[in-house]
Specification:
single chain, 9 helices, Rossmann fold
Length: 240
């Protein structure tokens, strides 16, 4: 008798619009979410984390922009009630206070090393979100940044984890950004556009599940809505 194969782990977005446009996210996946300030990087990352929890997966969320309390409150304000998962330790939150650090290459590279060591040796989560990497990769040596992403690639494959990283695009020189994108399985780019008197956030997915979507890359227009989190807007409305 052929032994039963374990059921593959997948992340549902638990958001009808994103689920229809982007589909399930498999475990393992290395995902880069890239965008400037206020484009919605954190909201998309939180939506994915919430979806992972609802999918029965364990999540570790490393934040450089919130306290534990403020992150949980922020997610609750978007109708992502993660409190039961936090209390049962399905969700673990760690904070890195980076804004007031006097940054140096050695310090930034050391933080990347610590994160890598934790993910490879001490992290039991199925899904890890790091929001955001901007400070660390801006100041770290380029070689150390590439080593970090290559290590994450190996951790995802060996430990069967999905790792989601948010970052500002200015954090990388262009040639390094191209190389980093190539290491990742999934790549989302977020932008803000003004249509008439309306501000619309755009999500472009040039790479999903390890495959380039090419010139016809998935494009999603959305708003941040307290009742829904990410609320998809029909793309034709944004061009009207």
């Amino acid at each position: 008798m052929t032994p039963l194969q374990p059921k593959p782990k997948i992340i549902s977005w638990y958001n009808d619009g994103l689920q229809q446009k982007l589909g399930d996210i498999p475990v393992p996946t290395l995902m880069l979410i890239e965008g400037a300030n206020d484009t919605g990087k954190s909201v998309v990352a939180q939506q994915l984390a919430y979806g992972a929890l609802r999918s029965g997966l364990r999540v570790t969320y490393i934040t450089t922009e919130n306290t534990i309390k403020s992150l949980i409150s922020q997610m609750l304000s978007l109708s992502f009630d993660v409190r039961p998962y936090f209390l049962t330790r399905y969700l673990k939150v760690f904070t890195l206070h980076v804004e007031n650090i006097e940054w140096q290459k050695e310090k930034a590279s050391r933080i990347l090393e610590v994160i890598t060591k934790y993910l490879s040796e001490g992290c039991e989560a199925d899904v890890v979100v790091i929001d955001s990497l901007t400070y660390m990769v801006t100041y770290a040596d380029e070689g150390d940044v590439l080593t970090f992403f290559s290590s994450l690639r190996n951790i995802c494959d060996k430990e069967l984890k999905t790792v989601v990283l948010t970052v500002h695009p200015y954090a990388f020189p262009q040639d390094l950004l191209v190389r980093v994108r190539s290491i990742c399985d999934a790549h989302l780019i977020l932008e803000i556009k003004t249509v008439g008197d309306r501000i619309v956030r755009m999500l472009c997915a040039p790479k999903l599940r390890g495959v380039s979507t090419g010139a016809g890359s998935v494009v999603v227009a959305f708003e941040v809505d307290p009742a829904f989190g990410v609320k998809i807007i029909p793309y034709t409305q944004t061009r009207a």
